[in-house]
Design a protein that fits this description.
Elements (H helix, E strand, L loop, with lengths): L12 H4 L30 H8 L2 E3 L13 H4 L7 E12 L4 E11 L5 H5 E6 L5 E11 L2 E4 L6 E4 L9 E2 L3 E6 L8 E9 L10 E5 L7 E11 L5 E4 L5 E7 L2 E11 L17 E5 L4 H11 L9 H11 L6 H15 L1 E2 L1 E2 L11 H7 L1 E2 L1 H13 L5 E6 L19 E6 L5 E3 L20 E4 L8 E2 L7 E10 L8 E9 L1 H12 L2 H15 L4 E10 L5 E9 L5 E3 L3 E7 L1 H7 L11 E2 L4 E10 L9 E8 L3 E10 L2 E10 L3 E2 L4 H11 L4 E7 L3 H20 L7 H19 L4 H17 L3 H14 L4 H13 L3 H14 L4 H13 L3 H11 L5 H17 L4 H5 L13 H8 L4 H9 L5 H18 L3 H13 L6 H15 L1
Parallel strand pairs: 1-5, 2-12, 8-18, 17-19, 25-32
Antiparallel strand pairs: 2-3, 3-10, 4-9, 5-6, 5-10, 7-9, 11-16, 12-15, 13-16, 14-15, 20-21, 20-23, 21-22, 23-24, 25-26, 26-28, 27-28, 29-30, 30-37, 31-36, 32-35, 33-34, 34-35
């Protein structure tokens, strides 16, 4: 491969985990390499040439057969803005009798500083075992002048072994050139040739090229193939993106593929691998899949030979190591190849596709996929069990049939073993366990047997009926008021179990535990792990079970004042359906591995919390997936379970919106809340009887009800007390109920009891903003202004946007004699408040300004309501600023019969304040008394009027 960008993110989770070995670097050209070549025409070049290539490179003129290509200014002008343009990517291949030459010329243009690095770095990859590199051009064009860099070139020949992390040594080298003095506006041009072909293809020409570049948009991509007319070379290129022409002259056929204005390659981790195929140009001299199968039979011809004594001896040992049952012998042999022959590939030259001798693999105890498969097949045949290597693509999988018949269509090899109806087994999957049926390779789409009698691709077993993940969450309450425990158990099977084993081998157990805990915390945000994660093999299966135990602090929260609710999510199902984003897509979206995913969550309570048993199933049967959910509720428990069956591995672009809308509709089936009442059924019945008795007493006149608010407050107090007595309230919900009780007690004038309720709430939850806010109001009502300021300040610190504590602090400053501070608070309130809030703040600002000796009408003028029909208490504001009368204010207060008492209380209080500021103490006392006589204890003005009367009496 000449360029090193790969799209490993498009591989399956199995491949990402490193469980599937790579096939060969030549085949890896299929995985994006920005134009990787894997081509051959004839037998190996003479030894002298191979040696010359292995020495490094030469500098030579451009070959005479190369056809020059001029830059097209018209095409360049159409390119979208980008830091770098690829003005030309010209590839020309000449197939000679016993050799082949690839010529490549690339022209890059630097438009912005961000393009300098990509323009100045040149890397050419080649295999010195059969290729020789020749440099032809290395130039910079600046303002029409040519700067020849070839004489002063600095070329480093690197043996980078970019596949070493995948346990593969390929021997490929990289000619690395870093140009100096490249500037914005420069054009960088270079050209080179690679002579030689991989002998493994037996003289057949195969090549796969991408016609987009990750460096930038490309004005022109051209591939010119010169081949003798007798060579039958097939071509596949998307006609919507490529123009193809062919001519014949003097025994040569010239095939030219062009693409103009190719966009810059944009990686999308969520598209199927086949999405990139239209950007490829494929060549193959193989006639059909039967031709490739015959080639594969020859490449793996070593398995048809008589096994060596060492292979025979090992086969005999395996056969005698246990039961004589063929399936058991296959399992033992597979275990040996998977676990005792480590994965490591030496894929130089022909070894890219041709396996090593089984005797050699057995002796060295390492090999890549083709080596291990060959050893597995040879060991089985020595035991009289038939097996055949099968070529597969872990990248394209079910889309491999979109490739031209060629060895390049495949990147992996496994074995079809003729037991139990035929099993596909993979010798590289060292982390498999369990019986053979659970170790079958599934979901690979199509395969090609390396059998001379094979004529076509064969459909391989899919994973639709395979269970991949089964998760079970148990949320257990010893007492409803206490934090529950969560026991999360996940069982991973097949490919997913192997991926987990790989993760456990590749990183510390603590890191794996951290990753699993993070997934649980996504759905239970406060979860705390209280026992080390336990990971166990499921005996007799290719499965791993993970068990974790968490404490769920403050799990239940109070909702609507009546229910305790806790969140849950069915993560193992949700993860497979979760969308990368909600925006419409113009590309298909890749889904997960076909098969079954299950998740259930069960809540277990120590008492009956539900009124009846309930069972509610739901089923969605679609083309892409099936979803089945069941809510199964008992009186003391609830279980929500879900099963997802993925039937397709992608969603086409045209189906995206419908798919997204469907998931939005189905999502509530996969996450939600479980809720229990704050009181028992018996408490509920007792409370209802108490309310009916109070209602009957009021109806008979035996008791005199107060205002509607006070009546409601009394009913709420009974309800709140039932909640507190019921014993179901956890710490924070209990604090919330105590705060609510304190508020209702304040409404009823039970100031002392309210004070204790708020304090009890803070004892449970010191950061409860509502408790501090309640205490601040309560302190104000009791005349404790410093306490009111302290608690109001703490409430604002915890909840800065709450206006209530700021009002309370303003009132407390006013009564404490800190009038300046009161004014500042009111001005802050008036910055951005509703019309009604502005009227109340304006009234208080009027009082504060008068107390400070200012012009109240002038100061409050900017804050008058802007609404065309301002609501109450605007009539009081008008009265204060002289634009309204007392009669108008009284009429406005009485206009709404339900609100009349409260509005009159407010009006009387503010009138009393006006008289007090005017020095009319007796008149003020009369207005304050009128405010108290309204008996609307729930109004702040009522309590403040009481406070004023008490202060007057004390003077």
């Amino acid at each position: 491969m000449r360029r090193s960008l790969t799209l490993s993110t498009h591989a399956t989770a199995l491949r990402q985990a490193g469980l599937v070995a790579g096939w060969a670097l030549a085949a890896a050209a299929l995985v994006w390499a920005g134009g990787a070549h894997a081509a051959a025409t004839a037998a190996a070049a003479p030894a002298a040439k191979a040696k010359a290539a292995s020495d490094g490179y030469t500098t030579e003129p451009v070959p005479s057969w190369v056809q020059p290509v001029a830059l097209d200014a018209g095409l360049i002008s159409l390119l979208p803005r980008s830091p770098l343009y690829v003005l030309l990517h010209d590839m020309q291949t000449r197939l000679e009798r016993n050799d082949q030459v690839l010529f490549e010329r690339i022209v890059r243009q630097v438009n912005e500083t961000g393009g300098l690095e990509n323009a100045s770095q040149i890397q050419i990859n080649f295999d010195p075992s059969y290729q020789r590199l020749a440099l032809h051009k290395l130039e910079i064009w600046r303002q029409g002048s040519r700067i020849d860099k070839l004489p002063t070139r600095r070329v480093q020949i690197l043996q980078r072994e970019s596949q070493l992390e995948r346990q593969m040594v390929d021997g490929r080298r990289t000619a690395s050139i870093v140009l100096d003095d490249v500037r914005v506006g420069d054009r960088v041009e270079f050209a080179y040739s690679l002579r030689g072909a991989n002998p493994v293809f037996e003289g057949r020409f195969v090549d796969t090229e991408h016609t987009v570049s990750w460096r930038g948009p490309t004005a022109l991509v051209r591939y010119r193939l010169l081949a003798p007319t007798g060579r039958d070379i097939r071509l596949r290129a998307d006609p919507a993106r490529h123009e193809v022409s062919s001519t014949e002259q003097a025994g040569w056929r010239e095939t030219v593929v062009k693409r103009v204005n190719a966009p810059q390659f944009q990686q999308d981790n969520y598209v199927p691998a086949s999405y990139y195929l239209p950007d490829q140009v494929q060549f193959s001299e193989f006639a059909d899949w039967a031709d490739v199968a015959r080639w594969g039979a020859r490449a793996f011809g070593v398995i048809s030979q008589a096994p060596s004594p060492a292979v025979q001896a090992e086969a005999a040992r395996l056969a005698q190591a246990g039961s004589d049952d063929p399936v058991e012998r296959v399992r033992r042999t597979l275990d040996f190849v998977q676990k005792e022959v480590r994965y490591f590939g030496t894929e130089m030259g022909a070894n890219s596709h041709r396996p090593a001798e089984p005797d050699q693999v057995l002796k060295q105890r390492f090999g890549d996929c083709k080596d291990k498969t060959t050893l597995l097949v040879s060991l089985l045949k020595a035991q009289g069990i038939s097996a055949t290597p099968v070529l597969v693509s872990t990248y394209l999988r079910g889309d491999v049939d979109a490739m031209l018949p060629s060895p390049l269509a495949f990147d992996h090899v496994i074995a079809k073993v003729d037991v139990a109806g035929g099993l596909l087994l993979d010798g590289t999957r060292a982390r498999q366990t369990g019986p053979l049926p659970e170790r079958v390779s599934r979901g690979l789409g199509w395969g090609l047997a390396t059998d001379a009698s094979a004529t076509a691709l064969t459909a391989l077993p899919d994973s639709r009926e395979s269970v991949h993940v089964e998760s079970e969450d148990r949320v257990v309450f010893e007492r409803i008021a206490d934090d529950p425990t969560l026991i999360a158990q996940m069982t991973y099977q097949g490919d997913f179990a192997e991926s987990l084993r790989y993760s456990l081998d590749a990183q510390p157990a603590a890191e794996v535990e951290k990753q699993f805990s993070a997934e649980v915390v996504r759905h239970y945000p406060r979860a705390e792990l209280i026992e080390p994660m336990a990971i166990d093999e499921v005996e007799g299966h290719n499965a791993v079970r993970v068990r974790m135990k968490f404490k769920l602090p403050d799990y239940l929260r109070l909702q609507d004042g009546k229910q305790l609710v806790g969140d849950y999510g069915l993560a193992s199902v949700m993860n497979e359906l979760r969308l990368p984003d909600q925006a419409p897509r113009k590309t298909p979206m890749r889904l997960g591995m076909l098969g079954i995913y299950r998740h259930a969550v069960e809540f277990k309570f120590p008492e009956e919390v539900f009124s009846r048993d309930e069972r509610t199933p739901f089923d969605h049967l679609g083309a892409a997936f099936e979803l089945h959910t069941l809510v199964d509720g008992k009186r003391d428990s609830a279980r929500i379970s879900s099963e997802l069956k993925l039937l397709r591995d992608r969603v086409e672009a045209a189906d995206w919106v419908a798919h997204r809308d469907l998931l939005v509709k189905l999502w509530p089936r996969l996450s939600g809340t479980v809720g229990v009442s704050t009181i028992s059924q018996k408490q509920g019945a007792d409370l209802l009887a108490k309310i009916r008795a109070a209602d009957e007493s009021a109806r008979r006149g035996a008791t005199k009800p107060g205002t509607e608010v006070q009546q409601t407050a009394q009913l709420k107090l009974w309800m709140l007390q039932s909640q507190l007595d019921g014993g179901r309230l956890p710490r924070k919900p209990r604090a919330q109920v105590l705060v609510e009780r304190g508020m209702q007690q304040d409404h009823l004038g039970q100031v002392g009891d309210a004070n204790q309720s708020f304090k009890d709430a803070l004892g449970l939850d010191a950061d409860n903003a509502d408790a501090h806010a309640g205490l601040s109001v309560n302190a104000l009502l009791r005349g404790d202004d410093e306490g009111a300021i302290t608690h109001a300040s703490q409430a604002l610190k915890l909840s800065p946007t709450d206006a209530g504590p700021r009002y309370t602090r303003a009132f407390a400053h006013y009564y404490a004699g800190r009038t300046d501070a009161a004014r500042d608070e009111l001005l802050e309130i008036l910055k951005s408040r509703s019309e009604i809030e502005r009227s109340y703040a304006t009234l208080w600002l009027h009082l504060v300004t008068r107390k400070l000796g200012g012009d109240a009408a002038q100061v409050t003028k900017p804050y008058l309501p802007a609404d065309s029909k301002p609501a109450w208490p605007y009539p009081v504001v008008k009265l204060f600023n002289g634009s309204g009368t007392l009669d108008e204010a009284l009429a406005a207060a009485r206009a709404d019969k339900q609100a009349a008492d409260g509005r009159l209380c407010e009006l009387y209080f503010f009138l009393g304040q006006q008289q007090l500021l005017s020095g009319q103490t007796q008149a003020a006392r009369e207005w304050f008394q009128k405010a108290v006589d309204t008996r609307v204890r729930e109004f702040t003005e009522y309590a403040l009027a009481q406070r004023e009367l008490q202060a007057m009496a004390a003077r």
